[in-house]
Design brief:
The chain is of the alpha+beta class. The protein is built from six helices and seven strands. The strands form two sheets. It has a four-stranded antiparallel beta sheet with strand order 5-4-6-7. Strand 4 (128-136) and strand 5 form a beta hairpin. The protein is globular, with a radius of gyration of 19 Å.
């Protein structure tokens, strides 16, 4: 039994889901529960814990804490959605305070919003990378590698060269970050999900763990990426 999309639940609903999980386990001792609802860390708690554990170099702050960021640039986003930043990069306290004031002027509450320190992972050509890997109870399956010139990477926005496709295929087949990813999921108390991350100085820098990820679809496009797709689908 896998509990998913937990970030959409209210605290009361999380308690209710935990009671359901407990009832399932009590009904049959053979039942295996993954993603216990009351244990899985949400975005803010995960990023704070990773930073405090020395696993993420960048930090995160709640807007309603009145705790100013200790490092810039930062951007502001909602904690519990996948819509991305609500502001551009804010480079100092003055810009940060102005952005919060603008949100309030537009009737947007600070409650439920966080400031995330920018993690600069661009290489010498200005290319940013976002890796995505599925995880289930110890098994790590690399899914994709997105490349972009934009700092907020949602998908690949570059025309992929043969070298870029070879880099993605190498990532998927070699699974080079598996041990780091297992440690991150253990800290997050999460058994199933997809981790989105980048690499800085050889270390995983986690953006989020999505507990309701899309599984790869089989596409037969003759674009040089078929071998990678087949491998991912077979592994999942």
């Amino acid at each position: 039994y896998v509990f998913a999309d937990l970030d959409r639940l209210t605290p009361y609903e999380i308690e209710a889901a935990a009671e359901i999980a407990r009832a399932v386990q009590n009904a049959d001792e053979r039942a295996i529960v993954s993603n216990w609802p009351h244990r899985v860390l949400g975005r803010y708690a995960l990023l704070r814990r990773l930073h405090e554990a020395g696993m993420n170099d960048y930090n995160v702050w709640r807007l309603d804490e009145e705790r100013m960021p200790s490092g810039y640039p930062v951007f502001i986003r909602r904690e519990q959605d996948a819509l991305g930043p609500e502001t551009p990069l804010l480079h100092n306290e003055s810009e940060y305070r102005a952005a919060i004031a603008q949100l309030r002027d537009r009737g947007r509450p600070v409650l439920g919003r966080i400031a995330v320190q920018f993690c600069d992972s661009a290489d010498g050509t200005g290319t940013y990378r976002k890796y995505g890997a599925l995880y289930f109870r110890g098994d790590v399956v690399p899914q994709h590698l997105f490349l972009s010139r934009e700092w907020m990477v949602k998908r690949s926005t570059l025309e992929l060269s043969p070298d870029m496709m070879a880099e993605e295929e190498g990532y998927v087949f070699e699974n080079p970050h598996a041990d780091q990813i297992r440690a991150i999921f253990a800290l997050a108390e999460t058994d199933f999900g997809r981790i989105d991350y980048t690499i800085v100085d050889g270390r995983v820098q986690t953006f989020e763990i999505n507990t309701n990820p899309n599984f790869p679809r089989m596409r037969l496009d003759p674009d040089g990426r078929l071998r990678r797709r087949l491998h991912v689908v077979e592994c999942t």
